[in-house]
TrEMBL record:
<dbReference type="InterPro" id="IPR036188">
    <property type="entry name" value="FAD/NAD-bd_sf"/>
</dbReference>
<protein>
    <submittedName>
        <fullName>Sarcosine oxidase beta subunit</fullName>
    </submittedName>
</protein>
Length: 48
């Protein structure tokens, strides 16, 4: 078994403009499947 992400290519640093976590968030969506993407779209369209 390998570590998660171990087989992914190296990501350049410019993809992480500010990797430090913020002190709080309005919304956290876990998962990018159909339901997670639909939720993100709904929240962005109607509340953001």
């Amino acid at each position: 078994m390998t570590a998660p992400g171990a087989d992914l290519p190296h990501h350049p640093d410019f993809l992480w403009h500010n990797p430090e976590p913020k002190s709080n968030y309005d919304v956290v969506i876990v998962g990018g499947g159909g339901h997670g993407l639909a939720t993100a779209h709904y929240l962005a369209r109607n509340h953001g």
